[in-house]
Structure formats: C-alpha cells, structure tokens
C-alpha cells in the first residue's frame, strides 16, 4: 500500500478531499483570513480529513491560514502542500524553480507557515523543464528520509515523466485536472499510476465551477478570476459548452442529486485510487461536495456520463498558451 493510501486509511478519511486554494487564490478576491479559517475548521468538523494547499496559493497566504485552522487538529488530517512554483515578490510574478536547494528552502518555509514538523504529502507543483525530474524528485526523497515529508507527489506531469520520476523515488500521488469535461488523465496517466500504486488526485473535479451550473456568464466574474483567461470560458466557446451541460443536469435530476454531486460521484466510480479534491469558498458547498461520497452510480449511468462532455464535444483548451507551456500533461489531438 502506498504511503498516501496508508495515511488516508489511518485518518479514516472520506475519499473526497478539500482543495484550499479557492479561499486565497485564482477565483477573485481572497476570502478574509478569519472567515477562511472558520470555513476550514467547519470543513474539518463536517468530516474532511485530507486538505491540499501550496506555496503558490495566495503568495503563501493559503498555507498560513491552513496552518491556523489546523491548530490542535494536525494529527487528524492528511496534509498536502506543493513546492517548485511560487510567487516571487522581487520579480512580481510566478516563478517555476525545481532546483533542489529551492525545493528544500520552500519546504522549510511551508512547515513554518503550516505550524507542523512534517507534511504527509509534498508535491512538485510543476516540473521545471530546465532541471531533470530526477534531480527534483531526488531532493524530495531526501526530505522523506529526514522525516520532513511523508511521501512525494507530482503535479501536471505526463505518464512518461512519472515513470522517470519513480525510478528515482516512489511517487505516492500525481495531481492532475480530471473531471467530466477534462479527461486528459485517461490518455495514459491513470494507467501509469496504476502500475505503481500511485493515487491520482483529481483537482478541479467540478470543472472550476462549470459542472455545478453556477457559472452562467463568465463575463460577470471578477477581473482577477483566472477563468476569464481560460479558453473554455471565453465568449467564443462558453455558450456552446454550457449547452452541453444540459444533459448532465438531466441525469442529476433523475438521480435526485445536484450536477456537482453527480460529477464527483462519476469520478469516485472511476476507481478507488481516484481522489477528488474539490475546492470551495462556501461552507454549504463544502458540505454538498462531501455528501457526494454517499452517492453510488450504476454502470449504465456511468456509461451515459462517459459519453457526455467528451474531448471532441467540449470547445476550447483548459489553459491559455502561457499556462499550457508550463505543464507536461498529455493533450488530446485536435
């Protein structure tokens, strides 16, 4: 059993985890810290046992608020964070840096912000393509040996890069965008993960809000919301994509559930090694997401959903050109 699965079992965790990013980063103005800490504490009270953050989120602010929310509860939770991509205040921009010394420095700083002496899972947030993956993963392996992290993870990598990395050190989890409207892990990554008992941690399992039906008009989103620069949410593509969601909503009505809960249940049906980590800025939405754990879909319903929002149906890439150049994930042919 991988360290990730062993720790999940140890904390008696539901498979659905909690992505903390939304509280500080990416979706408009950050939630005020006191309110964000209360939301995280409410999430822990309702049963979440796996929380995911990163050095990048909120230019380190997200780790700080997670650390405050964890006080007195650290041992109850599987804590995951990420390194290798951070906001550099001197340059005024995000920087990807996978050099061993940088990863070690970021780990030490993350531990301090999170008020803990170890992380259960530590991801390389992006592969720095100027540094061999073996060098970055090798340093993370040394952090495991020192007890600073429990297991090594990777984010937004291809099957080929995963295979290279795990030759250097076991990889407990790979984080990749996976949802009804983002099927890229099915190209090769899921199979590569299963070769070595590596969990696939699905970020944005609700399609950045799209699959909940809550985003009716992206033009109404805050100017700083990352979705405004994503091709799928553009004025050119979004009306088409929104029409595709009607079929998902129809299935949700048949199942007496919400479209978001249906989307999470679809992921859970894909295998016990698929771990969704939906994020939310709302305690009520966190509660709804966790409730999807109890929803079981039969094979016929899963097959129906498989045929919806397929790569040939969805219009627009998931990232713009600049972000696409940063990742290593396989893409479907045009």
UniProtKB/TrEMBL annotation:
Q: Which InterPro entries match?
A: AKR, Aldo-Keto_reductase, NAD(P)_OxRdtase_dom_sf, NADP_OxRdtase_dom
Cellular compartments per GO CC: cytoplasm
Where on the tree of life does the source sit, at the highest rank?
Answer: Bacteria
Question: Which keywords appear in this protein's UniProt record, sorted alphabetically?
Answer: Oxidoreductase
Q: Which SUPFAM superfamilies match?
A: NAD(P)-linked oxidoreductase
Q: List the source organism.
A: Halomonas organivorans
Its protein name is Aryl-alcohol dehydrogenase-like predicted oxidoreductase
Q: Which Gene3D superfamilies match?
A: NADP-dependent oxidoreductase domain
Q: Which Pfam family would be a valid example here? A: Aldo_ket_red
Q: Which GO terms describe its molecular function?
A: oxidoreductase activity
Indicate the segments forming the NADP-dependent oxidoreductase domain, all copies.
Answer: 15-308
């Amino acid at each position: 059993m991988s360290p990730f699965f062993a720790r999940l079992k140890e904390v008696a965790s539901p498979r659905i985890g909690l992505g903390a990013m939304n509280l500080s980063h990416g979706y408009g103005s950050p939630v005020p810290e006191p309110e964000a800490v209360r939301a995280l504490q409410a999430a822990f009270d309702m049963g979440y046992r796996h929380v995911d953050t990163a050095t990048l989120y909120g230019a380190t602010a997200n780790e700080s608020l997670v650390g405050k929310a964890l006080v007195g509860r650290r041992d109850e939770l599987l804590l995951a964070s990420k390194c290798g991509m951070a906001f550099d205040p001197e340059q005024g921009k995000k920087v990807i840096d996978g050099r061993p010394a940088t990863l070690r420095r970021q780990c030490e700083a993350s531990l301090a912000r999170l008020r803990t002496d170890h992380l259960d899972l530590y991801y390389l947030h992006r592969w720095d393509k100027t540094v061999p993956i073996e060098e970055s993963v090798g340093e993370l392996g040394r952090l495991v040996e020192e007890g600073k992290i429990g297991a090594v993870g990777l984010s937004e990598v291809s099957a080929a890069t995963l295979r290279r990395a795990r030759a250097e050190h076991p990889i407990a989890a790979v984080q990749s965008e996976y949802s009804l409207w983002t099927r890229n892990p099915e190209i090769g990554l899921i199979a590569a993960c299963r070769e070595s008992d590596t969990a696939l941690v699905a970020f944005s399992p609700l399609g950045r809000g799209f699959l909940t039906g809550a985003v009716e008009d992206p033009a109404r989103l805050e100017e700083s919301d990352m979705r405004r620069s994503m091709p799928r949410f553009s004025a050119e593509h979004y009306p088409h994509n929104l029409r595709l969601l009607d079929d998902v909503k129809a299935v949700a009505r048949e199942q007496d559930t919400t479209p978001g809960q249906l989307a999470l249940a679809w992921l859970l049906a894909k295998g016990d090694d698929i771990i969704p980590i939906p994020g939310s800025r709302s305690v009520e939405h966190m509660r709804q997401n966790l409730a999807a754990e109890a929803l079981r879909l039969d094979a016929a319903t899963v097959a129906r959903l498989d045929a919806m929002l397929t790569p040939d149906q969805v219009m627009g890439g998931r990232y713009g050109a600049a972000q696409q150049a940063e990742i290593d994930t396989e893409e479907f042919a045009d």
